[in-house]
Amino acid sequence: MNFFETHYNGKILLVDAAGPSAELISLDSSLVREYLGGAALNRALYDRFSDDDPVVFGTGPLTGSFAPASCLLVATFRSPFTGRIANVPLTLRTGPQVKYTGFDFIVIRRKSSNPVVVVAHNETVRIAPGEAYDGLQLSEMLDRARREFGRPESFVWPGAVTPSLAAAATGRGGGFDRRGLAAALTEKNIKALFIYGNDGLPFGSDDLAHSDRLIGEMKKNLKKKEVGFAGLLDRIGADQAAKVVPRRKVRHMACARCPVPCMSHILVPRGVSGTDGILLADHLGFAALAEHVGIGVYRLISVCNEAGIDPAAVADWLAAGVPQEEALGFIANLVKGKENNAPAGNRGGDFYGPLSEEDCDFFGGGLPPLYNVADDASIKAWKTRTARAMILGVCPILAARFPILDASLPSFLAENTAQAKALEQTLESLAEAVIAGR
Ligand code: SF4
Q1: Atom of ligand 1 nearest to the CA of 255
Q2: Is residue 362 part of a domain?
Q3: Is residue 20 situated within a structural domain?
């Protein structure tokens, strides 16, 4: 298998936040042979630099390729919440953008004594002063970045609120961080990671045709109502939340090369949301809020996304009897650094049924649970598909929804049947290790 050369740049960006300084080191082909990429290779890099408590961002071999939904970047770090190692999947354009900067992995080690922002840009990196980003909400942060460095193609942002309530965001719709990626970045005094990639990658000559055939299969019996944010809420049984999402005049939004989007941009009346339109991307955060406030979810999720606060944390306040208006006041005070009221609760953990807190570490505790909770075999299959996607660099939501996609992913890397079989064996044992947190 020669995918090391065709699907990777062969470079790791090593940032020493304490310097601050940065260097490029080679990605060894032996490391790729052993760990393939994504969450599995991240863990190997985490262990290599564990004395410096690193946050590792890693692509998979398929990230940025023609494979469907090849958008994934994975963050691996020690959760400041639990002390355990966790992974968080990062979608939208983050993964391809890292590849297009010329890096495959970004390792941020040690702590900066002053706030900084890390700007990765076509095989170069700049570690710039970040004091001016302190306390900025999402729109203000993006405006400032645009003025300072140009419009970010992609970003990872740890939010404007106290780290214990923040969730790292990769876009205006939040993200899937419920294991403290935001807190881990804040511990290092990193105010944001901006990614500007405009390079390209080689790919296999049949990859595009192969991908189109596969997408055709995936869409064969797909109904219109299964697409978009509401379709995904239906699929996970979040009925209360699904009821308040309009099915018409909705623009579905997709990450890089995703054929069946699970996000939607909707227009809601200004009086309801406090905004003209909103990107819905965090299914569990939205469902957790909608359970308590119904249509009031729009106002709350807008301010959560803008502040970088975990909507599931706000839902925990609501569950404890805090009225909606008071919760909005808490958020406003959090942004000003005046609130110290951390909700007790499990941040949406109830959605995962029989899964323990530790079970949820490997996928960051924020992905929609696409399994039948009464069925152990279905949970095991879901976990395995999720882990495989997080190693190969493909969206775990799409791979979990479409078993045919999961089964076809190795064929984008193997050149013949014998190679495909060997790759399956490697993937199987790596997926087990990722699920077990090894
Ligand atoms: S399923 Fe959703 S999160 Fe995944 S790639 Fe598609 S739009 Fe993005």
Answers
A1: 8
A2: no
A3: yes
